[in-house]
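job 3f2a | input accepted
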Amino acid sequence: AGEDYGVNVQVVAPPSESDIPGQIALIEDNAAAGATGMAIAVTDPAALEPAIQAVIDDGVQVVWIDAGGSNEGITYIGTDNAIGAALAGQYLCDNLEAGSKVAILQGIITTTTGQARAEGSAEAVKECGLDLVMEVAADFDRARGLAATEDIVTQHPDLAGLFASNDEMALGAVEALRAAGMLEQVTVVGYDANPDAREAVLAGEMAATIAQNPINMGYFGVESLIKLINGEELAETIDTGVELITA
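job 3f2a | predicted structure (247 res):
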């Protein structure tokens, strides 16, 4: 988008997805460096709200991409995560018998993304009659997803399905299930369709994953900031779409 529109785009990120102070520092530093617009994938809405409000008050245009914040009047550009997670839950419903035991690995539950994926998947599996036996927060992290799955299968050795709110946790779950000799028993669905997950789906280790459209998120984010800088108005939400991916 920067090349197409002839604007200078700096892409920056903290070292990890959960590094809230790192993201706050990036927001403050880029504002001080003269940024006129910011497309932000928010780590923690409440924690970032003051820093984001400060740059908005200084005249910087802001949009959310991928994960929204709590500041009012900001356009969200990204996936409807509840719908995406419901697609994953529906896949489990369609491929498991009613009453089968399933579990959910939640992401960072303080984020809007983590909340929406947890709620959307839980509602879907409950509505179709699956038995949701555990919901465990593993913070979008592969190692924590592995540890959480070890705990789940220890308590529920007859587990039949598992939804992980991102592919990193799903891949951790695959490792735990393989070690427990349960990989063929448990239907694993992830979220993001990242390269490792796509390979796992093709290998039959994961049954499915949910694909977002991060290209659109980034492109529309820059495009939308240019519109705001030029005095145009935006819709409250710009949905970039989701799709269920199987082998």
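job 3f2a | Residues 112-127 form the longest helix (16 residues).
job 3f2a | closed
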